[in-house]
Amino acid sequence: MSVDLGSYTARVRVQSGYIGAVADPGPDTAVVVVGYRAAFATHPRPGTPIAAFPGIDTAEVAAGGAAPVALIAVEIATQVVTPGISETRWEHDPFGIYGTTGFHWYLAPVDPTPGGFVLTAGSWAASGYEAALTTTLTRQAPTAPAVVRLHDKNPHTGTRRRWP
């Protein structure tokens, strides 16, 4: 089964706080969101499989030209270490005493494999760009925000992945 990749294509733009600080990607810069990954407490590691959206085919995505990315949702929790006890546990911090709470959403680069898609190797951080999700994408991930950050910058080298 094949799908219209246009309905899974998100337009890349500069985040409002970065206008003038990063290059404008232009009106034709887009990424194709191929799937979704939920994580708890920590970000998923490189090589983590992505649950592809129905009908997404690795060959079609590779031929499409737009860079493939995955929608990532990380539920934030706080690591609690109790002295004298040998186990560590994760807890929600309802009052925000230890930092951010809730969900952290972003797009991360993926690589096609014979079995689907996996998160690209390396470290990726937010770069000052964001992407507006289509209606099809927000139906696939109903709790996702309409606009998410693009994690496409290597924090160690400053280089970006695959797009301007």
Can you describe this structure in just a few lines?
The protein is mainly beta and 164 residues long. It is 8% helix and 41% strand.
Describe the 3D structure.
With 164 residues, this protein is mainly beta. It has a domain at 5-37 and 46-72 and 101-153. It is built from two helices and ten strands; from the N terminus they run βββαββββββαβ. Strands 1, 2, 3, 4, 7, 8, 9 and 10 form an eight-stranded mixed beta sheet that branches. Strands 5-6 form a two-stranded antiparallel ribbon. It is globular.
Radius of gyration: 17 Å
Q: List the secondary-structure elements in sequence, H or E.
A: EEEHEEEEEEHE
- Globally, the shape reads globular
- The amount of helix comes to under 10%
Low-confidence stretches: none
- N-to-C span: 32 Å
Total number of β-strand segments? 10
Q: Which terms summarize this structure?
A:
mainly beta; about 160 residues
Secondary structure topology:
Layout (H helix, E strand, L loop, with lengths): L8 E6 L15 E11 L8 E4 L5 H7 L2 E9 L2 E4 L6 E4 L11 E11 L2 E4 L5 E8 L2 H6 L6 E7 L11
